[in-house]
Structure formats: structure tokens, C-alpha cells
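Lecture 7 notes. Example A: sequence first, then its C-alpha cells.
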Amino acid sequence: MPDGDTSPEAEAIQIDLLRKTPMWKRLRVAAEMSETVMLLSRLGVARRNPGASPAELRRLAADAILGSELASRVYGR
């Protein structure tokens, strides 16, 4: 097997199924995964900053997600 835990045969099946999946469904899955990543990021920021206000948490999450430079440009310093 390659470095991962998926056999080449199983990977070929996964790729075939993905190719047969309608574009709208692939986009929906991608959007759902993106929402999950954003939620986990916000939860991680809140866990690391238990005393922060909601406004502080939004800004800290923006820094984590966008990077401090872009977050400053979007939300101000």
C-alpha cells in the first residue's frame, strides 16, 4: 500500500464515485465542509480565550481565519 491507509483499489473506487457525483452535490459537500471548518475555528478561538467578549472573539476568529493583515484591512485595527 502507499503511504496512506487507503488501498489503490479503494482509492480508484472513490475517485470513480466522485466523478459520477453531480456537480451540485459536490459543491454542497464542499460548502458544508467549509462551514464545519469555520465553526471549529471559532470554537477553538473561544476555547483558547475563555474571558473574551463576543466582539473580541469575532476579531480573534477573523485573525485566525483571514490572517491578521487581512483581518485588519477588513475590520480595522
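Example B, a different protein, same format:
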Amino acid sequence: MESINPDLVNISRGLGRGRLYTFFRIVLPLSLPGILSGAVLGFARSLGEFGATVMVAGNIPFKTTTIPLALYSFFNRIDGGEPVKRLVAVSLILSFLALVASEYLLRKQKHAQR
């Protein structure tokens, strides 16, 4: 998203379009290839990390269980639907918070360099 020409966003806003319209009609379509490639690379990396975690740490309940290992364990159980949903929600929230914190620190660093 940082590589999108800001003039395109400014032109859209200058023509009276709202922020949401500009995001969904300009920013998101131009960012989609990067978002998709990031998702594919993230998924591929997670598969590799999962295998390494299982081999090195194992899956000892309440000792070496990580969120991916817990998801795998609950997913293979008949009554594991609700715990899987909760763990996915926790994973998404943690990922979002990490992304927000990273962006905040990056902007703070850029501001300090000026």
C-alpha cells in the first residue's frame, strides 16, 4: 500500500469521493496482488514452522502446545469446533495487534528521523 501513488488517492478525494470509496475503489485493487502474494507466502511459511515445531518441541498438553498445535489437535476432534473458532479469533486478534504495533513504531521512527 505504501507504493501506491498518493496522487491517485488525492485525486479521488479531490473529486469528492469519501475515504471508504477511495479505499475500496483505488487503494484495495492496487494492493491486491501484494496482499495475495503475502498471504500465500505466509501460509507456506506457516506449514514449515508447524512441522519444525512438532518435531522439536512436540505437542505436550499445557507444556509445549502452541496455538497452531492446539488448532491441529482440536481440529482432529469431533467436538473441537468451538475451540478452533476461538483459537482462530485469538490468532487473528494477535496478528492484527502485532501489525498495528509494527506500523505505529515504523511511523514513530520515520517521524523521529525528520
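Note on Example B: The mean pLDDT is 85. The chain has two domains: 1-56, 57-114.
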